[in-house]
Amino acid sequence: MAHDNGAQVVIIGSGGAALRAALAAADGGAGVLVLTKGRLGEAGVTALSCSDRMAFHATLEHTEPGGPDAWRYHAEDIYRIGGGVSDAGLARLLAQGAAEAFHFLDRLGVPFAKRPDGLADQFVTDGSRYARACYTGPFTANHIHEALRKEFRRRGLAILENVMAVDLALDASGRAAGVHLADGRTIPAGAVILATGGAGQAYEVNVFPEGMTGDGCAMAYRAGAELVNLEFIQIGLSSVRTKLACSGSMMRAWPRLAT
Ligand SMILES: Cc1cc2nc3c(=O)[nH]c(=O)nc-3n(C[C@H](O)[C@H](O)[C@H](O)COP(=O)(O)OP(=O)(O)OC[C@H]3O[C@@H](n4cnc5c(N)ncnc54)[C@H](O)[C@@H]3O)c2cc1C
Fold it and tell me: How far is ligand 1, taken at its centre, from the CA of residue 130, in Å?
């Protein structure tokens, strides 16, 4: 079958993280292969999940309070909202990189809501102190996935669909040199990126799409990685029947819950 020879960079998963990684690796001149256990656009949270208003937080040039250090407020919010136990370095990276990520998606054609002056409309949500949430509406993540998918297809990048990765293949020094699949094949790789999403299905009641079972964490653990903060997962008001999650904005309105 095509792609059995592997690639310089093999990416497991085909959600937002995986597709963005594939585009970046291709930009860097690497040969890329995406392996995914569903079909592109029909599996995973980015492609399928929604909320009453789905937010993409970014500190943009016009985001208050402004100034060269505006990203610091963003990083502080991420850290504070995480109860002070998240990785401060990662919070900083996210805050500093979010504007570039937003502009990349905007250029790809994600239909972000805009103000009359053409700048992104942003609202305050979750525990943020400033309005940083960009959005298209209830389907922001789905729109992001659609745009990434279109670009992935336009560039003709390689993908194997309906294949399940079960473990990393390690070389003699313990370095990831490929991926073992459930069908018995091993796909060689110069580097492997795990982008298999969260483990919502670990909970009996959850609003994750099918198949979100934390496979990447398990693979990394079996390969010797240390895993931290696995107990931290977003818990909130959601509709199990429709799989719609109530946004931070709705919760800030102090809804009265009755049984
Ligand atoms: C209801 C809901 C509302 C949300 N609202 C927001 C919001 O408003 N703002 C926000 O920032 N975030 C929100 N999130 C979280 C956000 O959507 C996710 O964190 C993000 O989309 C995850 O992207 P990902 O690429 O990491 O994973 P996914 O998009 O889930 O992609 C994972 C991919 O890995 C594949 N895969 C998994 N295991 C294997 C395997 N063994 N072999 C091969 N492929 C595999 C899957 O098929 C899938 O393609 C929300 C989540 C939910 C569920």
Answer: 25
